[in-house]
Design brief:
Helix content is 77%, strand content 0%. By secondary structure, the protein is an all-alpha fold. The radius of gyration is 19 Å and the shape is globular.
Length: 257
């Protein structure tokens, strides 16, 4: 059925979140982040709008960036943007962070994302003419302004129903505050955990800015926040769990004479 498409793609997205966290941090963070992603009410209760597919492809792009496969990441982000335009801000945010880490890698990702996008839009424009641009781009610009004031309400609803967004800020503090003596730029280049944290935070902020600026706000736009908050929650809960285990072991270990 149509609903099963979203469930399957959502499950695939959870696998990609798991793989990204496993590469950047460890199995504990991966299990936590992947599980919370899969159990998110906003993903489980979503209907067929294309958001689950866009989120899956964006999660694949994020995982490929963490793996250093920038060409594959570019293709994944391009496909996500073709499925749903509201996936583009998250991809742009990841690219901006990557630009700080490595200009060469950022250029590679940009080329492999831009070329497929241009090819698809040019081919369909040649085929359909002005109707394609009006249906794909002008349509969004001419939407009536609906859902005014819904951004705060939707965020409060998500805070009430999901623990993921609640842990976003603490996760940033936990992941970025472990080595205060080093410059952030150097840590972004050298530490995969910090890179993933920056990718997730940037995509979260970019999606929120997009939703806040768009003329028509729909609830399923907020599902794209999972690309940022799931890795952040995994990093935060994982760090807290590791510290709790270390504390428990220190209590059980007798002091040396």
């Amino acid at each position: 059925t149509v609903k099963s498409i979203g469930l399957v793609t959502g499950a695939a997205g959870g696998i990609f979140i798991y793989r990204a966290l496993a590469r950047a941090s460890g199995a504990l963070e991966a299990w936590i982040g992947g599980t919370l992603f899969l159990l998110s009410p906003d993903l489980l209760h979503s209907f067929f709008t294309g958001v689950a597919e866009a989120l899956m492809l964006s999660a694949l792009g994020l995982e490929r960036v963490v793996a250093g496969r920038d060409r594959q990441a570019g293709l994944a982000f391009a496909a996500a943007s073709l499925v749903a335009m509201y996936a583009a801000p998250a991809g742009m945010a990841v690219w901006l962070v990557l630009l700080v880490c490595s200009r060469r890698r950022a250029l590679t990702l940009a080329l492999w994302a831009a070329v497929p996008l241009l090819l698809v839009h040019v081919l369909f424009s040649l085929w359909s003419g002005r109707a394609y641009w009006e249906g794909v781009f002008a349509y969004h610009l001419h939407k009536p302004k609906v859902g005014a004031g819904s951004l705060p309400n939707e965020l409060l609803l998500m805070l009430r129903r999901s623990s993921l967004l609640v842990m976003a800020a603490p996760a940033a503090i936990v992941a970025l505050g472990v080595a205060p003596g080093r410059a952030l730029t150097a840590r972004l280049r050298d530490e995969p955990r910090v890179q993933l944290t920056a990718f997730a935070l940037a995509s979260l902020v970019a999606t929120l800015l997009f939703v806040g600026a768009t003329r028509a706000v729909f609830h399923y736009y907020f599902v794209m926040l999972m690309l940022g908050v799931a890795p952040l929650a995994g990093l935060a809960y994982g760090a807290l769990a590791r510290r709790a285990l270390a504390l428990a072991r220190s209590w059980r270990t007798p002091n040396a004479p």
